[in-house]
Write a structure and sequence with these properties.
The structure is a single chain. The chain has 16 helices and 13 strands. The chain has 385 residues and is an alpha/beta fold. The chain folds into two domains: 2-179 and 364-381, 3-Layer(aba) Sandwich (Rossmann fold); 195-361, Rossmann fold (3-Layer(aba) Sandwich), CATH 3.40.50.2000.
């Protein structure tokens, strides 16, 4: 059987879609459409550049403001190029990642099953930005209303997102977390006089990563912080400048805070394993941040790190359930520092040892065991799940 996977993310660094493709290729002949130079053994990759000229952006903006959403979609998404690239190919399973690929998939799938993986809650994706609310919120709601009923199988990344989709659109997503593959790692022993904190991920201004840097002012000299940060290749000017801003913030702690280039996906867990505590403080400035269950948390777990986070509900639930770290009372540098300040070497070691069971429970293999039977049933029966 043949499967088509479409993703408009930067696929070379999108570990969620990479895992999805690796699972699918075990049972399907997989074709991937993306807009970067991603490659995968035994997978056919078709590249369609997802760029918009200034004229197209202006026309799309007008269409969005006038609620001409079909026209807006054809201006925002290279529908003609996608159609031309696919030619007359047909597939037994169509996989759409995120809402921007779903209308195109629905237009070409015919009566074949569609699997939709929602990486975010689309109607409130960037609700903290007034420009996004003005142009895209109603558009994303309209896409969900029109196309979600045509989906045969849907998954998403956290229970908070799944619940919101159920409540507002009557769909029933399955939970597939962002956990990487299980790795048999031994926790690195904490040093007597040093606590090595680490964070990795995207350098996006809305994440307010500077709060973790400012936290260092409230911690003793024994605490250090390393950040491995990536800026998306198609980021706007503000986002590109954000990394320079973070470097200036880090310069206040020249021997304690270090900003590094991003890690290749296959090196993340091995590199993190050399640290003591994975940290993530993410103020809930939008719905998706408030309900995040991110890649980095599961990377911390597979690296056998203790975890220190803000009070994000689903992250906090895991940390408390397994006794593998600390949860700040508030989303402030002072509060996270308070949670960390008094930790002893023995306490950190106990947290790291407690991560082992979580690493077995929260891994890609368990997600694969959930998803693949659903897809097998889908491609055999073509019924809604």
């Amino acid at each position: 059987m043949k499967a088509l996977v479409i993703s408009f993310s930067n696929l070379s660094s999108d570990s969620r879609v990479q895992r999805q493709i690796k699972w699918l290729k075990k049972e399907y002949d997989v074709t991937v459409i993306c807009d970067d130079n991603y490659s995968e053994d035994s997978v056919r990759v078709l590249t369609v550049v997802h760029r918009k000229s200034m004229v197209r952006k202006i026309l799309a903006g007008l269409a969005l403001l006038l609620h001409q959403f079909n026209s807006a979609y054809r201006l925002l998404v290279p529908v003609q190029e996608l159609t031309r690239t696919l030619g007359h190919d047909r597939f037994d399973l169509y996989v759409a990642n995120d809402i921007d690929s779903l209308p195109f998939v629905c237009g070409i799938a015919g009566n074949k099953p569609i699997y939709f993986d929602a990486h975010e809650y689309a109607p409130r994706h960037f609700e903290d930005r007034w420009q996004w609310r003005l142009f895209f919120q109603r558009y994303n709601i309209a896409l969900c209303q029109k196309y979600l009923p045509r989906v045969n199988l849907m998954t998403t990344v956290s229970e908070g997102l799944a619940s919101e989709y159920r409540k507002n659109f009557g769909v029933h997503p399955h939970l597939i977390t962002n956990a990487p593959a299980f790795q048999a790692k031994e926790p690195t022993l904490p040093q007597p006089d040093r606590v090595r904190l680490v964070h990795h991920g995207g350098a996006n201004p809305s994440r307010q990563l500077e709060l973790m840097i400012r936290m260092m002012a409230y911690l003793e000299e024994r605490f250090t912080l390393d950040l491995y940060l990536i800026t998306p290749p198609h980021a706007n000017k503000k986002t590109r400048a954000y990394l320079d801003f973070l470097k200036r913030e880090a310069s206040q702690f020249p021997h304690r805070v270090h900003i590094h280039p991003p890690l290749p996906t296959h090196q993340i867990v091995g590199t993190l394993n050399h640290y003591d505590i994975g940290v993530f403080l993410l103020p809930p400035v939008n719905f998706n941040y408030a309900h995040t269950l991110p890649n980095k948390l599961f990377d911390f777990i597979q690296a056998r790190l203790a975890v220190a986070i803000g009070p994000t509900p689903e992250m906090a639930q895991l940390v408390i359930q397994y006794g593998m770290g600390v949860v700040a009372q508030e989303f402030t540098p002072e509060s996270l520092a308070d949670a960390l300040r008094h930790l002893t070497r023995d306490q950190i070691l106990q947290f790291k040892l407690a991560v082992e069971q979580c690493a077995h429970d929260q891994c890609a293999e368990n997600n694969e065991a959930i998803l693949m039977p659903l897809l097998r049933a889908l491609t055999k029966t073509d019924t809604h799940v």
